[in-house]
Structure prediction request, 716 residues.
Amino acid sequence: MTDIILSVENLTMRFGGIVAVNDLSFTAERGKISALIGPNGAGKTTVFNCITGFYKPTSGTIRLRHTEQEWQLERLNDFRIAKVAKVARTFQNIRLFPGMTALENLMVAQHNALMRASGYTFLGLFGVPSYRAAEKAAIDLARDWLDRIGLLARADDAAGNLPYGDQRRLEIARAMCTLPALLCLDEPAAGLNARESGELNELLLRIRADYGTSILLIEHDMSVVMEVSDHITVLDYGVKIAEGTPRQIRDDPKVIAAYLGADEDEAIAVMEGET
Amino acid sequence: MVAAASTSSKPTRGVDAAFIVKKAVISALVALVLFSLMIGVRTEAGSDGQLTYWTRFGDLAAMVATVFVGSIVIELLRHWWGPVETVRVVPPSATKALSFAGRALVPVLLIFTFLVPVIFYNERYILDLGILVLTYVMLGWGLNIVVGLAGLLDLGYVAFYAVGAYSYALLATTFGWSFWMCLPLAGILAAFFGILLGFPVLRLRGDYLAIVTLAFGEIIRLVLLNWQSLTGGPNGVSGIPRPTMFGIPLTPGDDGLAALLGIEFSPTHRIVFLFYLIFGLALITNWATIRLRRLPIGRAWEALREDEVACRALGINTTTTKLTAFAIGAMFGGFAGACFVTRQGFISPESFTFHESALVLAIVVLGGMGSQLGVALAALALIGGFELFRGLEQFRMLVFGMAMVLLMIWRPRGLIGHRAPTVFLERNQAISSDLVKEGAG
Ligand SMILES: Nc1ncnc2c1ncn2[C@@H]1O[C@H](COP(=O)(O)OP(=O)(O)O)[C@@H](O)[C@H]1O
Ligand SMILES: [Mg+2]
Prediction:
């Protein structure tokens, strides 16, 4: 039996007349990288926003299971999904804190742990040793992540000053600093060049290997999806049209047609070019 | 100067004469339309009630010409000084000297402030002014938490100043409690009102937040004005006891401080004591703010200003984060209010008009949102400047408006616009102001 961390059941999201997601069901396995792909406007980001509490789904259930507990995410408040249920996310349009340094960005991510350690500010105000130790540990964790993403030398630079690719990786590191059980990445390879997207693949695989974090990935870049995903769900007009292993998806004519419009010949050519 | 500026990589720095003239002409036209009735035609009721009028086209022409020339001058100034680039217009050697001066500035200011009562012992006016400036420094630091750090535009800050002042005044006069008991209570009550304001405005951002906070400030003032039985209405509260030095009154009596020390009594003692009292409170405020900024709560405030959505995605409770910013900012305002009352010995709702909110906000914006030193300098410049130009009477405001406009053109992010990081690994380098967000709420 497979070990499921996230199961989305009959999720529907309507905006007025638009049905962005229609009766979608899929699951993500613990410790695996699951991908959600589909053409632009298919509803992928909407699914993420429902999972992470930014939208309240019109109907459907989103179950998250880990550490022998189960949460129904659609019933939790936005910030509690990250705080209690331990779901972290990145955004399609990077949302760092541009005026804060790379290090500060990673410190803000550890807010809840540090808040507890600072006795909800009262103890921290007077610099009690236990808080200082906790802060040092937080800095060490941040330093470790900066090292992993190759940004240690730029720790004290404003996040808004970093090159685009670095910002993408910093956002992933920031999400990881919340120590999530499920990491949701919205098009992490968008705007990256070939070398950078290769580095991203490595980063994702290392996160899976070192932390066992389950990853849910939205991606447009086929090279990333095909290389790192264990399981792929394909979405088109808010409806699931296929799912399976990368190999199965690659050869599925329905996917090729949906993904690249009606022109199947061109589609196949592009798919082969990618591999 | 100009050479250094032109070497930096910036598109055009040439003067676009056509654009400037066009802008000046438009400004002059607007002025013509606006002033033609206000200045050009003058009406008055004649001796037997009929309306007489006469024209003053000469004055009107002068006004329009001033606007035209002024517009050109401002555009040119903007070109030469403007924030067209944030990098230096000053050569590197001068920058170094400046940064040294900058580092020396804080200790020099502290020592100077400490010595003010010694140097100006015989000049009551300067001491009073010093107390006033320190009160505004405190108010500025309080509002700085809300506006500068958390990025929540609060136009009703005077409400907390008023709550602190009235709490102190009423507690001290009704129960006869001492200054040291009333002061923390005034702060706590103000913080409570901060939370009270915080709740309804949690979901509001930007302009909407500004308008609701502005209304809140007015509501508090109107309540103070109309709740006659409690606040004395427009007559205010008088006979507020003066602070004692830990129980020792500063009076000419036998048990007064002067008698105890065996020196001759002078009313200046009380002023000097008040000066140090407010100075001490301001320093505590500053210490607390600097510490809070480096604690998780302070970082969350700044993160909230930078990007609220990202904060929520990181599991930060934005509700409590906003409420604590309102509460702590309000608490400092409450302390300042209590100080104000002890200095005056009398308060009425007149002291808490929107004008005060605007002044404190001007201090924060002028100082550079988020910068403690900037706020202190701005309070000194604004309050001190107000007094300096007292001789100009009604033109004072005009001079001030102009000075503010010029300063905002020159340094749109305030006197100290850059941001100091709260934690660093190797280099503690300032962050350029154009990366730092102002906050949407
Ligand atoms: N907040 C919203 N209000 C209205 N329509 C929305 C909203 N968010 C998404 N949509 C619509 O839902 C559909 C799916 O969008 P999205 O989830 O962003 O697609 P994808 O991420 O797959 O490109 C689009 O038609 C989009 O216009
Ligand atoms: Mg999307």
